[in-house]
Amino acid sequence: MAGNQGGAVRTPRDADGATGPVDYHAVFSVLTAPKAVLSPDLTVLDANESLLRTIDLPASAVVGRRYLDVFPAHGPDGSSVERVVRSLERVARTGRLEMIGPHRYDLRRSDGGWTERWWITTNLPVLDAGGRVSAVVHRAEDVTSVVLARGLAAPETSRGEVTACPDEMSLVDRALLLGSSVDRYAEVITRERRAALALQDSVLTPPPDIPGLTIDVRYRPAVPEVHLGGDWYDAFAHPDGDTTVVVGDVTGHDVAAAAHMGHLRGVLRSVAFATDAGPAAALDAAEATAEGLGLQALATVAVARIGAPGPGGRRGLCWASAGHVPPVVRRADGTAHLLEARPAPMLGIGLGGGRAEHEASLGPGDALVLYTDGLVERRDRSLRDVLDELPARVEALGDVPPHELLDALLADLVPHGAQDDVAMVLVHVDAVADGRPDPDEGPPADL
């Protein structure tokens, strides 16, 4: 594509030990359906040969121009261009795939007239290492022959039953002829997706604003087009001024895992807040409650409770784990270390409670990061090896401000996307009011 023109990615060695480059721009160029790559502001970055042939323009007349300059609204259904542009803008803003059912956009003939054309378009986000949309792939499928042959363009036309589907028909033809057109299919998918995203948005809520603390969160799905799974984060304040943060990982990354995640997150949050239980007691009580209610969920969870500020702005830290990867602390001086302890059983395996609590402290400028294992799991390396390297990777990001640290970690550790979902929460202790620590306070407490 445009950002990688002339570039090639080397493939793994084959059985004979040979390697060969894959020129992804060449692959993109020969794909049969018309495709364009757009920047988030809808400037055309690249167009494949099929698109250039379809609109009968050279690349020099397309690349570098805005979408509406290349595809201006015209003809009897010029509003369809507005639909496409609104979709592209939403995808660039939200990072969520969209499909637009059959819509009309006519093509100019060599004699100056117009040829009626009907299209199905798909807009797909391309995410950078930080999870932001860096480009949008715009794909068009010409379904004119089916729409016109079967009268599907007219709203009053009955779609009726179809008794034959010739072998030469495409899958799109068959879907349209059988009365299950792609636009209606897209509407169903869109409704289901909106429901799933509404569930996710109701669970993965923004962190609270707590004086003296900066709390930041991230969620990165393993499957971007699904954008839903079993990982979660949470943060809430207690009446006594303490703050609890949580990350958890229910097995699976589909809608069922998301439903289990929502139940378990609600149980743990309710128990921890209503009973004012510490992290270990909250985990034990949540497990017992979930079992009693018949919630069949296996999960690893880490819970940390940060106390109210004491002398010099230092805060107590109490944390517990249910089979979860260890939190990491970045100190104000840039050093980092894991908060490790003896493993405790994950929730839902029936080994009972009795999990231990561990204590540390956080001073002004310190940051605590909880994360799920998608950040550190690798197919080609042991989890232990990656965890051992994590503090050094955090230290290497010492100049990164707190509000950018999670994005920097994602970009560093999973630059090409995670193999599993990733949820993260960061708690940074802000500087004390006068900017100076208490002179009577000793060095940062550790484990």
UniProtKB/TrEMBL annotation:
Transmembrane segments: none annotated. One of its GO terms (molecular function) is phosphatase activity. Keywords: Hydrolase. InterPro entries: Bact_Sigma-Reg, PAS, PAS-like_dom_sf, PAS_4, PPM-type-like_dom_sf, PPM-type_phosphatase-like_dom. The keyword Hydrolase applies. The keyword DNA-binding does not apply. Residues 213-429 form the PPM-type phosphatase domain. Gene3D superfamilies: PAS domain (3.30.450.20), PPM-type phosphatase domain (3.60.40.10). Pfam families: PAS_4, SpoIIE. This is PPM-type phosphatase domain-containing protein.
